[in-house]
Amino acid sequence: QPLSLDQAMSAQANPNLEQTRLISENEGSNDENSNFASCFKRPTNLLHYLKFSNTNGKFTSLKTILVSGSGFFCDAYDMFVISMVKEVLKARYPGQFTDADNAMISAAVLIGAVIGQLLFGFIADKMGRRVGLISTCGLLLIGAIWSAAAAAPTVKDMFVVLACARGLLGIGIGGEYPVAACSASEASEEVEPQERGRNVLLVFSMQGIGAVVANLVVMFALAVAGTSDQGLDFVWRFAFGFGALPAAAVFWHRWNFQETRNFAQAKEKQGFNSKSNSSADRTEQATGSLPWMFILGEYWKPLLGTAGGWFLWDIAFYANTMFVSEILTVFGVGKGSLMATASWTLLIACIALPGYLAAAFNIESIGRKNLQMVGFLAITILFAIMGFAFDFLIAHPFVFLIVYGSVYFFFNFGPNSTTFLLPSELFPTLIRARCHGFSAAMGKLGAVIGTAAFEPLAMHTSKAAVFLV
Q1: DSSP state of 153
Q2: Helix 292-321 vs helix 429-460: crossing angle, to nearest 10
């Protein structure tokens, strides 16, 4: 097992000290949490959290979970609304909104997300989960407003401004991953540790709700404004600006957020241990970090699993998610109008939503590894069907919808959920956010590869080959 944080710091202060292997502190400081197998003794009850019991801190933990989840709703909305907005921009600026502009705007939010995941993973471990939650919420608010208000002397310059705004928004989106996951995980440990996996995934399920709302907002704007040039201008700006509303609504709650008990205790314990060390050691320990090379040396195996799995997964996930409207058009679904495309995209999002909830309420009984393997296997089979039966599915669009909708169900009842959950459980408290942020950043690098390769691969091979790859 990896060294605990206390042992690691002691080892740095005294290199000659023999390093004893202990179980890492990732299950919290309570003795009842030390054995992970003991977390599955009692059935969970969702209504259990509605008891306003200050003695056990259950209401505080519920509030933490809701505050984290609402921020992730903003993330999901801002990430998935771009799929429909790109279709609106194509209709509003025919011949001017090129594939290069499309790729630039899509890549900007993903690159920003990578920066945010690494940056706020570091900040959340250094300065606390509260600082991270407030900062990311502010970036989401500013980025959404800037996206809606993007303007420039020429249309091409406006696309550049829009890409910059989406990049800033992406930093906030990326930062939510480590701070929301770690806050929810640590808050759950304060209530009952056997419910931790479910609660972290309930936070993550806000991604599915955000995807549904994104399509509903675009459909509402289209119904109100129509498809004239002025109407389409309203649609894409309204769709981007709407993302600021949930961020503004949750900002006050995040400002009043109390630091999770596990993190506060770990920092207090760290500060106590530093009193016996030299001035130089106290300076290093007060920063709340261990050198990355030391972390990689001690935790390279779990990091390889969480970061490597997330990297490979997001290649497939984002290549599909950010081009879902194009995929629907290829199969003859949603052709003819923006409203039709939005309607079918909404249907796919609704089919995907139960996968999030199924994962959340079955994760403890099925297990993390088993759920991930089931999801990967099901997705492999479904993509193979879509590749080999491509012509048949084009001729039968509703059969295609069943198969493609099943893909999205197993996206979420599988690796999309487990890749988010595992880094919040496998690492000690004081390096948890950094390791989660690093793992998520590797995932977004995979997303950049997936989105950049989707259209060139489809153009130079065949649409069927894309699914097989």
Answers
A1: S
A2: 40
- Look at the alpha carbons of 194, 432, 65, 75 in this order and tell me if their dihedral is positive or negative: negative
Cα three-residue angle 228-231-234, rounded to 5 degrees: 155
DSSP tag of 260: P
Give tens-digit pLDDT for 411-450.
Answer: 999 999 999 999 988 888 888 899 999 999 999 888 888 7
Whole-angstrom distance, CA of residue 376 vs CA of residue 417: 12
Find all residues with CB under 8 Å of 96, minimum gap 6, and list them.
155, 156
Angle at 14 between CA 9 and CA 20, to 5 degrees: 65
d(CA 443, CA 118): 12
CA-nearest of 79, 66, 116 to 249 is 66
Contact 125/430 with Cβ under 8 angstroms? yes
On whether the CB atoms of residues 153 and 283 are closer than 8 A, the answer is no
Contact partners, residue 304, CB within 8 Å, separation at least 6: none
**Tokens at 466, concatenated:** 């894309």
Distance of CA 299 to the CA centre of its chain: 22
pTM of the model: 0.77
